[in-house]
Design goal:
The chain is α+β, with helices and mostly antiparallel strands and 74 residues long. It has one domain. It is 26% helix and 30% strand. It is built from 3 helices and 4 strands. The chain has a 4-stranded antiparallel sheet with strand order 1-2-3-4.
Length: 74
C-alpha cells in the first residue's frame, strides 16, 4: 500500500513496510524527508489519544521555535 496525504499545511507519504518480521507503517514528510516507522502497538496507542493531546505537535508557532529539531530515522 502506498498513499500520499496532503493539505495546505503538510504532505506525507504512507507506506506499509512488509520486509520486516512485523509489518510497520512508514510515514515520510515529503518536504523534509523525515520519516518514522510505527508498529501495531504504537499505532494502537493513537486510538487512545485525543486530538487535544496532539496540539503541541501541530502548533505552527511551536514548530518555528529554535528548540524544534526533527528526528530522522535511517
Amino acid at each position: 500500500m502506498n498513499a500520499i496525504i496532503k493539505n495546505e499545511f503538510a504532505s506525507v507519504e504512507i507506506t506499509i513496510d512488509e520486509a520486516a518480521c512485523n509489518q510497520m507503517l512508514k510515514i515520510r514528510d515529503l518536504r523534509s524527508g523525515s520519516e518514522v516507522e510505527l508498529d501495531a502497538l504504537e499505532l494502537e496507542a493513537f486510538t487512545r489519544t485525543s486530538h487535544r493531546q496532539f496540539e503541541t505537535f501541530v502548533d505552527p508557532d511551536r514548530l518555528k521555535e529554535s528548540a524544534y529539531q526533527p528526528v530522522r530515522s535511517k
